[in-house]
Specification:
By secondary structure, the protein is an alpha+beta fold. It is built from 1 helix and 16 strands.
Amino acid sequence: MRTLKRGLTLTELLVALALSLLIVMAVTTLHEAAGKGFAGGKVLTDAEEEALAALSQLEWLFQRWGVGTPCCSQSCTVVTDCGEGYPPPSSLCVTIKPGGRCDEVTFYASLGGMGFVDRLLSAEEVALVSCRLSTQENCYHLRRGGLWAPVDWDYESYPVPPAVAVKGLSPDDASCAELKSSYNATALREVELLNGTYRGSTVFTLESGDLLISVPYRVTLFCKEEEDGPWLYARLGEPVPECGRPEKEFAVAPVESFRVTVEGKALRVRAVFRGSTGGLFSVERVYGR
């Protein structure tokens, strides 16, 4: 048999060439499969990331459902429709308007700071435990002895619960996460009444134990059609015009659907989030009070 000068026969060379081609084909197939698998994983990851970011915002809103919200009836803990006026018929009110892909959901939630009077420092000054009390959005409801103050608010004779502004707050926006003493802020004892009969006056003074809660926003979750499909949005409306806080609206996440149902004293949220590369991720959560 004719042989090559380097010692390989023609048959051996052909066999080696065939084996090389098989190896190259196998590596190419594995590479394509790995690429497809990676792409599929990337789609899912994008959708998961959108869902996680959206859930952090939704939980921030739903966990405050009804917090700091007065009501105009004796049944403040019954889940019912919010209606149009303020205060609502129940602190735990919710209005759900079914839509095509998305429900529109409205409820009340206090999203700002809160605090309470630790003690009187003098006839003019109080010591406060401040959990983000701020003069930037200086509009608070006041509770004293389980009642909405500065009057023994009667929903039958006083249509809107009083809102007050804190004066002389120092420091502003103090955190109570790591309280190192019995109080972390001070303020003037007199508060300004923003609405009602005594609007603009300072005839009301704080007492030890008074609780200040940021006036709630009227929160609405709804979908808006964008170029890449529907997006879930949140709108924060002002229920007490005298507070003067501007309406806020922000995008939450791209979605395929968003549904909310009432279950007892809880809200069940079902959403399908859409990733930037087209992947979908379904989430279901229950938020109760």
